[in-house]
Automatic annotation (TrEMBL):
Annotated Pfam families: DUF3626 (PF12294)
Classification via InterPro entries: DUF3626 (IPR022074)
Lineage: Bacteria, Bacillati, Actinomycetota, Actinomycetes, Micromonosporales
Organism for this UniProt entry: Dactylosporangium maewongense
Protein name according to UniProt: DUF3626 domain-containing protein
Length: 288
């Protein structure tokens, strides 16, 4: 393994490996971690600025922010799931928030937006060596999946993959990865991939890439005009919100940068942030 792991992290990996069954041939895929680079963290920084300053990607147990459900606290849903999944390794005395796993997805299809785009427009593409200290589940841990494995024993996960992809829909059709140990930018990250709507808006990204020796890549991000929004997908309130944002900032269409701008302006308004999350889901699925 390429990182020094704590006793809790080694125990968590061993617990999953013991139940995963016989070894299998490794698949040709790496882990990606999706995130919104311009959201505000608990310290008042943007996520990209936090990455630049810290040199590590941190879990929601540390940051206090999430693009899914914020349940990473003792007794919360994520804490309970991790207790079951990893045999209580992270509930032992002396375990600190930094010890907890970091969540991504196994990019089996090499999607240009990353393997779990519902969680953000940007993603870190990790180096293959990180695979050896990751565990994997079929589907998001929010649903408490039972199928789990490690990279060289993935049979429990791959066996149901085709059915899972067919049933889950485009936002949930991924294999979740839990990376044990730190995600160090200089050692563990091969590339930072950004939506091109942020070009000129995230100067910290270029500094980050230079400082930590990471390749900076831009991808063509989705755009969606308000009149293209399907009211059935995430509810009838999403279209009026898109109209409002386009009018406020004089834009002809919604993109990731516009949603992020609105999220920063509404960072203390949970209801508006939830609607903006639905707008992001709509954009990433239906945008062109």
């Amino acid at each position: 393994m390429d990182a020094q792991l704590t006793a809790a992290q080694l125990e968590a990996l061993g617990h999953v490996r013991a139940a995963a069954g016989p070894r299998t041939d490794p698949v040709d895929a790496v882990v990606t971690i999706n995130f919104h680079p311009d959201r505000i963290d608990a310290g008042g920084r943007t996520v990209i600025a936090g990455l630049l300053a810290d040199g590590r990607f941190r879990s929601q147990f540390e940051t206090g922010i999430s693009n899914g459900g914020l349940t990473a606290h003792p007794g919360g849903d994520r804490d309970r799931w991790e207790e079951r999944m990893f045999g209580g390794a992270y509930q032992r005395p002396g375990v600190v928030p930094a010890d907890r796993p970091k969540y991504g997805a196994l990019d089996l299809r090499r999607h240009p937006a990353g393997a779990a785009r519902r969680f953000g427009s940007a993603h870190l593409r990790l180096r293959p060596e990180v695979n050896t200290r990751a565990t994997f589940t079929l589907g998001d841990s929010f649903h408490e999946p039972r199928e789990a494995g490690v990279f060289d024993a993935l049979a429990p996960v791959l066996a149901g993959l085709a059915d899972h992809v067919a049933a889950a829909g485009p936002l949930d059709d991924y294999v979740e990865a839990q990376v044990h140990g730190p995600v160090d930018l200089a050692r563990d990250v091969a590339a930072l991939v950004l939506d091109d709507s942020f070009a000129g808006h995230l100067p910290a990204a270029e500094t980050l890439a230079d400082r930590y020796g990471i390749k900076l890549e831009w991808r063509a991000g989705p755009r969606l005009s308000p009149d293209e929004i399907d009211d059935e997908f995430r509810g009838p309130e999403v279209r009026p919100l898109a109209v409002l944002l386009c009018e406020r900032w004089s834009r002809p269409f919604v993109d990731a940068e516009l949603i992020g701008r609105a999220a920063r302006a509404a960072h203390a308004d949970p209801e508006r942030l939830q609607l903006l999350k639905y707008l992001w889901h709509t954009l990433t699925v239906h945008g062109g």
